[in-house]
Design goal:
This protein is an alpha+beta fold and 1268 residues long. The chain contains 49 helices and 32 strands. Strand 5 and strand 6 form a beta hairpin.
Length: 1268
């Protein structure tokens, strides 16, 4: 059996060969191979693998590195263990000079490894000393999370961990940072959103600084300015390099304009990255790619000077349509203002930018010497830019075409037919034409729109635009008719909501690699439109070849299973069955092999075809033609599975049948296929090959397929990249003359290779790149089976690193020094798991620092669950966080915090007296103490620290910072003197209270079970009281739980899983008792007034407690009952929808707008309270509040034109008790008063003093107490 991975702790795509070459060189790998043959020295040579395994895992894991840097004793123990093994190896040399040479190489590798720790410490100090004079200290990040999250991009290829990650606050800092890094001997890698698909930002040099530009996110309003050489003013926008692409698109859309750059990654990609890669998207078919739409851009050069490029005589369209193109290049001194000589004018023909006949082409890296654009960060760092915005025609239709025929040769030409027709039709244009093949259709979970049982074989989605609705509708109908002639059905979306729904599937294409733990080889080629059908045919030919080859491998594996069983067979009946099974395998193998080897032979000459297949032979058919049309089918189920199952019948052969099935599934799991989706309007075909990164054979077979794909693209007069760039993955396919032109340019502008060292060089492909394999972790680690680390591993293993979670994540706010997106945290979590596993296996003891790192990741999550919706593979990092906290709690390593501990005591107790005292001491007096502390400290100047930009919160918080951050904002809240339960006399847990208004309730009134939760009755009890009052106003009979109850969510989310389960189980049992006791009431509605309670109660299975019931938020219930206000004069409303929105049945804004009788504006983002986060980690909470404060001020300005609310002209409403607490902290800076919607309703509908009146009326006969 071939030995591929004998080196321990290797959970990567590397085999032993690549690891040995990395440390000892290729010659020594050959030496090891030869030494394996000797008995004594061969065993000794393999001892080196333990040494290499230790070095390899530490080198690729920054958490292990940091532990060893900070803990000299552990470091010395490891190095001594490495040297001990080498001494043992030396004792076994046996006078073998080759083995001695190997030993010398290994000793040098260990010495280099040992010395690196001290060198890193010294270099860190040097970098900090140099950069701290230029930028904030917390912008210089050596943490494990920062380094691993910047070690790769969407590919997950890795070569080296970056030495440091630097996140400048402003554009002005960049030049000085570049100069200081160069002086420290670091190479520089510009980095944006990390969404690249070719490894352009993957470090190739361990001595590198990644400069993260995500804080450079200044975005102007739409500015109409005059451009050089262009008549009239043009709509433009100025944007920082770190601005997320979607923000620019949204700004343009808000002004009735269009931003042409819209890659699929636009929710995470940044403008700087778009420029460096010359990104495109679906609108490129209309207005071209990034290059076509740039007006100007600024960048820092390898000499740490500034350079600004401005396009002259912009044609406001596709650049290759312009005969001659000119750019002005002005250089500046490091101050960015003083010109450095006169501007240089660069002139080139428009046709030089792309291969003639293609809509996209990013293979010319030299690009006539034009700086920055398309250079993949190899000639400087782009900091800002200005783009043209376009007027989008006023009318638009989105068309979805579903093709059901088996003959792709008939379907794919529809792309050319549609584009040609629209091109010839005046007054209508294609603003996007996208394609999904059959494999993508399955991967994205596509919902077929046609009334058919089968799924389409191909889908086209097109945006058609025009200023004339009649012309547009006529063209749309004609497009559909043309598609129908090709066995398709068409559907039209005209409203924004339906159009968005049509495009939603296109945004989930990354899901194609979910089954391979999110690893795929991603290629994007560009094919001339008339040759797209030929390309599709070529790709399907590859797929059929792979499918048949894989099935033949299954036959070989199944034959081995039969061989093993045959040796154990001891009766004639079994032997005869096995003989027949062998014959079946041989017959099928003969048929499939013949078909595979005769693709290009005439189908009519093939004697192996069945009569049914022969009936479908068409004139001049080759075998491949029939396979492509599926007139010949290669079916494992029909040709092998069914016959073998019939042959091997009987209970005594059940085990054999199971082994055959397993053998087939194992081989099927190794099957490779190529999936296509296209920006079809310009022939940009994304060609993806999902691969299991742990499977060495698959990886190398995938490389062979890529060779075929690239050769196919070139043979059709296409190019190897349309928008993804070249990077690591494609450099070996780039034409030598194009690569030579770029290398010459690179050596001219960056002779010392300060930027992105090694990238786009002829000797730097994927040879030294690896990808982690969580599958290998899962397979090899027994420890994972014995702990919850295995489940944690499963939770994250499908992450695609696409970054679509970033816009929704509350802990991803770059300008607040908060870079904890789920993507980054998942990358960190994977290596923390690996660190735990390694140290458990080596028995050296798990470092305490690893628990701190896990605490750090777990702390930086609000558990809002908002990341799940945009995730193509449905990862909910909120659930991942709860699992991490559970692991930490069970290990006794969960970080302790007095504030969160006290909050849990308050929530856990059910004793009314204890609750009253805790409420008085913790909440009432605690709030007043924090407000007093704020008023006191703000006069000392301590609050001015980090007031403008919050400090980074990576790592363990500083003890003195916590109290300052706790009182950074006052919490001006007036709590009711007592809870409504105490006021109504409902504290006794032995009785079930039923509240009804005798004047409004009757026997037919609704019976409602109201679960108030902790926040609505223990803390802000006016919320619970208002809920009871409004339910009474509707005539409902309201059943309350007996006594004070918590839903269990706070405990579960804090990692106290067992306690949370105990509360949940206890409550469910109690509610069943309530249901039995009150069986005469037909309770059909359970009402809540808290979002976390809603989320937890959804798990209670209330339909089994109160049959036929449903869960509603109180506001949704009141909406259904027709409760609403007339418009309140002099007040406008902002609504803060909680992270855990309690409104699940109706849109929260529609609910609040209807209830309040006027338009309500949504105020987005987390309030910062996030359960107990505000007290446990006020430093993190203040980063969230920094972002929320911006949102509140923006909302006030949109409503009033002012920066601050005055005299109650704007009021902030919410529907979450914790949010009410959190939002009250913004009162001083925004002028906003915060309240609950239901309280606002009660105030205006029931009048002043409603609390006292309701309590008095309830006590006069409105309360029934039923003994439980």
């Amino acid at each position: 059996m071939e030995r591929i991975r004998e080196i321990p702790y290797n959970y990567t795509s590397f085999s032993d060969r690549e690891i040995v070459i990395r440390y000892l060189g290729e010659d020594n790998w050959a030496l090891i191979e030869s030494l394996r043959g000797t008995r004594r020295t061969g065993r000794s040579a393999r001892m080196l693998f333990e040494v290499l395994g230790d070095m390899w895992v530490v080198e690729r894991n920054p958490y292990l590195q940091d532990d060893l840097i900070n803990n000299r004793e552990r470091r010395n123990a490891l190095i001594e263990a490495l040297n001990h093994r080498l001494r043992q190896f030396e004792q076994r040399l046996n006078d073998n000079p080759n083995a001695e040479r190997l030993l010398q190489a290994a000793q040098k590798a260990v010495d280099d490894f040992s010395n690196a720790f001290g060198e890193r410490e010294q270099l860190r100090r040097k970098v900090i000393q140099a950069l701290s004079k230029i930028t904030r200290r917390d912008n210089i990040d050596f943490s494990g999370l920062a380094r691993v999250s910047h070690s790769t991009d969407a590919t997950d290829w890795r070569v080296e961990m970056p030495f440091v990650v630097i996140s400048p606050d402003t554009e002005e800092e960049v030049a000085a940072i570049v100069e200081s890094c160069i002086n420290c001997g670091l190479t520089l890698i510009p980095r944006g959103g990390g969404t690249g698909y070719t490894g352009s930002a993957v470090p190739l040099d361990a001595h590198c600084a990644v400069i993260n530009t995500e804080k450079l996110e200044d975005l102007s309003e739409v500015e109409h300015i005059e451009l050089p050489g262009v008549n009239g003013k043009v709509a433009t926008v100025r944007t920082g390099a770190g601005v997320v692409t979607r923000r620019v698109s949204d700004l343009a859309n808000a002004h009735g304009l269009a931003f042409a750059v819209d890659p699929t990654s636009q929710d995470a990609s940044t403008i700087g990255g778009n420029i460096a890669m010359n990104a495109g998207g679906k609108k490129a078919v209309l207005w071209g790619t990034t290059l076509d739409n740039l007006v100007s851009w600024r960048m820092v050069t390898p000499q740490a000077d500034w350079l600004e490029v401005t396009r002259i005589n912009h044609n406001l369209g596709k650049i290759h349509d312009q005969d001659n193109v000119e750019f002005s290049i002005q250089r500046y001194h490091p101050d960015g203002k003083t010109p450095k000589g006169d501007a240089e004018v660069l002139r080139m023909p428009g046709g030089a930018f792309r291969k003639v006949g293609l809509g996209k082409d990013v293979t010319d890296k030299f690009l006539s010497g034009l700086p920055g654009i398309q250079k993949e960060g190899c000639d400087g760092l782009i900091t800002s830019s200005r783009f043209v915005l376009h007027r989008m025609p006023s009318q638009s239709n989105t068309v979805c075409l579903e093709f059901f025929g088996n003959d792709l040769a008939k379907a794919v030409p529809a792309i050319v037919e549609i584009t040609d027709y629209i091109a010839q039709t005046d007054g209508v244009q294609i603003a996007g034409l996208e394609h999904l093949d059959e494999r993508y259709i399955k991967a994205v979970g596509y919902s077929t729109k046609a009334a058919r049982r089968d799924t389409p074989k191909m889908v086209l989605i097109a945006d058609l635009v025009s200023d004339d609705a009649n012309i547009l509708n006529a063209a749309t109908e004609m497009v559909i008719n043309k598609a129908k002639a090709r066995e398709a059905e068409g559907f039209i979306a005209t409203t924004p909501e339906k159009r968005k729904a049509f495009w939603a599937d296109r945004a989930r294409t990354a899901a194609i690699s979910a089954h391979t733990n999110a690893f795929k080889i991603n290629e994007d080629v560009v094919i001339p439109l008339p040759r797209l059908a030929d390309y599709s045919r070529g790709i399907e030919r590859i797929n059929i070849e792979q499918s048949i080859s894989n099935k033949l491998q299954s036959i070989a594996a199944m034959r081995k299973v039969l061989d093993q069983h045959k040796r154990q067979a001891d009766d004639a009946i079994t032997e005869s069955k096995l003989k027949l099974a062998y014959e079946t395998l041989s017959e099928v193998e003969q048929r499939w092999s013949t078909l595979l080897s005769n693709f290009d032979q005439a189908a009519a000459n093939q004697i192996i075809l069945t009569e049914q297949e022969r009936e479908h032979i068409q004139a001049n058919d080759l075998v491949i033609d029939m396979l492509l049309r599926r007139d010949i089918r290669i079916s494992y189920r029909q040709e092998l599975k069914a016959p073998l199952r019939e042959i091997l019948q009987g209970g005594e052969l059940e085990k054999l049948r199971g082994k055959l099935r397993d053998a087939h599934l194992e081989m099927k799991n190794e099957r490779l296929f190529v999936a296509l989706h296209m920006h079809a309007g310009d022939g940009n075909v994304h060609t993806n090959i999902p691969v299991h990164s742990h499977n060495y054979r698959m990886l190398h077979e995938a490389d062979r397929i890529v060779d075929q794909v690239m050769q196919l693209a070139k043979s059709l007069d296409g190019v190897i990249s349309g928008e993804h760039g070249i990077g690591l993955t494609k450099v070996q396919y780039l034409e030598p003359e194009k690569l030579a032109d770029f290398v010459a340019y690179k050596n001219q502008v960056d002779p010392d290779h300060h930027f992105n060292r090694g990238k786009l060089m002829s000797n730097q492909g994927l040879e030294g790149a690896y990808t982690p394999s969580l599958r290998l972790v899962q397979q090899e680690a027994i420890i994972l089976e014995q702990s919850e680390l295995g489940q944690l591993n499963d939770d994250i293993k499908h992450c695609l690193r696409c970054g679509k979670c970033k816009p929704k994540c509350m802990t991803h706010v770059p300008r607040a020094n908060l870079l904890y997106s789920p993507r980054n945290k998942i990358l960190g979590t994977g290596l923390v798991i690996e660190a735990f596993l390694y140290e458990e296996q080596t028995r050296r003891g798990i470092a305490f620092e690893h628990f701190e790192e896990m605490n750090d990741i777990a702390d930086h999550c609000t558990i809002c669950h908002k990341c799940e919706a945009p995730c193509p593979v449905n990862i909910d990092f909120g659930d991942v966080t709860m699992r991490m906290r559970k692991i930490l709690t069970q290990a006794g390593e969960k970080s302790f915090n007095l504030g969160s501990w006290a909050a849990m005591q308050f929530l856990n107790t059910t004793n009314p007296t204890t609750i009253r005292w805790l409420r008085k001491g913790m909440a009432d007096l605690g709030f007043k103490a924090m407000t007093f502390g704020h008023d006191l400290i703000k006069h000392t100047g301590l609050l001015r620290k980090n007031a403008k930009i919050p400090a980074s919160t990576t790592g363990k918080p500083k003890l003195l910072d916590i109290p300052i951050e706790m009182v950074r904002r006052p919490i001006r809240v007036e709590l009711p003197k007592q809870s409504y339960r105490t006021a109504l006399g409902l504290d006794d847990p032995d009785y079930v209270p039923i509240l009804r208004n005798p004047n409004k309730a009757d026997d037919d009134s609704d019976a409602v079970f109201y679960f108030p939760g902790c926040g609505s009755e223990r803390l802000f009890s006016d919320v619970g009281l208002a809920t009871l009052a409004m339910l009474s106003e509707t005539g409902a009979q309201t059943v309350l739980p007996p006594g004070y109850l918590c839903c269990g969510y706070p405990q579960t989310s804090a990692g106290q899983h067992d306690r949370g389960q105990q509360i949940t189980t206890s409550n469910r049992v109690l509610f069943h008792r309530v249901a039995n006791t009150l069986n005469y009431l037909d309770i059909k509605t359970v009402v809540v007034s808290c979002g976390t309670c809603m989320d937890q109660l959804l798990k209670y299975e209330f339909e089994q407690i109160f049959p036929g019931c449903r869960l509603l938020d109180i506001h949704e219930y009141l909406l259904e009952k027709g409760i609403k206000l007339d418009k309140v004069d002099g007040v406008q409303y902002l609504y803060h929808d909680p992270c855990h929105s309690p409104m699940k049945e109706y849109d929260p804004i529609q609910v609040s707008t209807t209830l309040l009788g006027q338009n309500v504006t949504l105020s987005d983002r987390c309030c910062g309270e996030a359960g107990t986060l505000g007290t446990a980690r006020p430093d993190i909470a203040n980063q969230l509040r920094f972002r929320k404060s911006e949102e509140l001020r923006k909302g006030i300005k949109a409503l009033t034109g002012q920066e601050k609310a005055t005299q109650g002209n704007v009021k902030l409403l919410t529907s979450c008790p914790a949010c009410q607490q959190g939002l009250s902290r913004y009162g001083d800076e925004t002028g906003l008063k915060t309240d609950y919607i239901v309280i606002e309703l009660a105030k205006h509908l029931l009048g002043d003093g409603w609390q006292k009146r309701f309590i008095e009326e309830a006590k006069k006969g409105g309360i029934e107490k039923v003994l439980l």
